[in-house]
Amino acid sequence: MIIRVRSPEGMHRVEVGLSDTLGELLRKLAVEMKAPAADAIVLTRDVRGQELLAEFEQSVVSLGLKHGDMLFASVAPSARPSEEPAAEAAAPEAARQSAMQVQQHAVDNELERDDGLIRRERDRRMCKHGANAMCEYCTPTEPYDAAYLQTHGIKHMSFQAYLRRVLAGHSIRGDISGALPTNMALPLDEPEYRVKAACVGSHAPWPAGICSKCQPSAITLQRQPFRMVDNVEFASPDVVDRLLAFWRASRCQRLGFLYGRYQRLRSVPLGVSALVEAVYEPRQSRDQDGVHIDVGSAELDAELARADAVAAACGMELVGMVFTDLTPAEPAGKVLSRRHADSYFLTSLECRLAAFMQDRRPNACRWARGGRFGSKFVTCCVSGNLSGDIEVSAWQVSNSAMAMQRADLAVPSSAPSKMCVQEPSPTRYVPDVFYRYTNEYNLPVTASAKPAFPVEYLLVSLTQSFPLAPAPAFRSDTPFAIENREHVHAVQSLGALKRHLAPALGSSERLSVLLADFHLLVYLFGLGILGEHEVALIGRIVCEPMEAAQLAEELMAAGGWQTLVLMLQEASDSDLDAQHSAAGSDAAAAANPAPPAPPSATWACRHCTFENAAANASCEMCALPRD
Fold first, then answer.
1. Which of 226, 354, 510, 521 stands 20 to 30 A from 425 (CA)?
2. How far apart are CA 26 and CA 42, in angstroms?
3. Straight-line distance from the first to the last Cα atom of the chain, in angstroms, rounded to the nearest whole number
4. pLDDT tens column, 99-120
5. Cβ neighbours, 10 Å, residue 106
6. 556 and 534 Cβ atoms separated by less than 8 Å
7. What number of other Cβ atoms are within 10 A of residue 453's Cβ?
8. pTM, full prediction
9. Cα 245 to Cα 627: distance, rounded to the nearest angstrom
């Protein structure tokens, strides 16, 4: 009998016997379609690809196929033929084997075991059936259902919901935690805007030559329908208040890195929330209109490595960054509102920084070619809202923004709300870039993004929240000095450590409370005195509050802790502070140059500029110290 097959290449007529299997049909079809292999063909009964045929060992008769039936076929994008068919035919299987080795995040593994369906209660008005039946008004819906998302005000679906929508096109639903399908190419692929390095075309490598196979396609920017993280939750208001304390004391902006964990978010179908437990503040300049930090430098990487080690011991990780953008306003206690719908939410410079940080911390995904897709790194901004109150907003940039950052296609502009497209150069290929918008006649319009385009096309908005009953992991009631705050008289030193731990050296219960401080642990671990056993014990003290007192007793008996205690007891506070004052002063001076010396008769307060008498040690206006 003859089976008709429609494909992008045209109509094919495949002759098969009554006893032939589906695999033999695919092998014959692969020859006509010039496909690299039979398993690279996706064969369906309908044009939309909903009814997939994958029973290779069954006969065509047992599958219900008859003479003259019409089927639909396509070749997987990752398996299209090229000048090296053998290598291309092996690519899908190699990608699948590589994807099986990807170690996904624990929260992704948890969500993959869930079917993702949204359960609905029985509608009293519309449901006319019994308690054990279902109808269209009470049947569970998919997590990507547009009506549900719009009703609940969810602008972006979760990444796992987006993945379910993609897999539904391949007839894969429910629990997806099992092995990857053998007859399907990996469905996800990150955008790539760089010239393909290993091009098989017969030309010189880029930049000496280029062809249609290795050059990137035109880019059309549009709103990303999903987000990798749905919500940012701060474990306690004190996490933000301690960051704001620096601005209140110096009126200078501050940037910090967020440490916590990712967990499931029940309010969004298959959602993910980033729970922030602490903020680490790296060395940076102090300016009233921004911060200067050497991103990607060895010094910053070393600082983050120390903080990462502390977070890992406590079962946490780096989840994002936060920065302030605050300017005092009248009346007292209010701040200026700069970021809103009529100006901007994130500046072009901040978007590029977010894209850089997200690209350095990709999200591992076994469903994506290359083993990575997007990033869970979030960006938070503390600024003023329309009411003049301080508010935290959370954002991510899209996968397209990350790809443009990798390809060096976009640079910040002098206008905060505009991102500029780079000019081509002998070593930089810049494809055509477009963006879509709706004009005044409510019609979709595609416009060129050169020379600049709005940064909103790169943004993905997240929600942020605080718990009703805070239960932070770092529960110390006596906070230790925060790192890199020497110029606001918050110094980390052995003397400060001795005074901080003195009330708890004889009490395991009190010690377990004081050790639950992220900034204390970063300084403590950086001394290099404690061994791996002591570090693991302190991590368990933070993670297991019910057993913290017993673990603190075990810590007090450990050799590394006793060495630290003995060193603190033998030295005086002045000696311990003197060992660190010189190094701390030099480092602070290097990051923050000292202001000019004031006149002998009066001195100007560096906080409020009030002229004070030379004998005053603090400002008469704001009461802040002179130095």
1. 354
2. 9
3. 93
4. 678 899 999 999 999 988 999 8
5. 11
6. no
7. 24
8. 0.78
9. 17
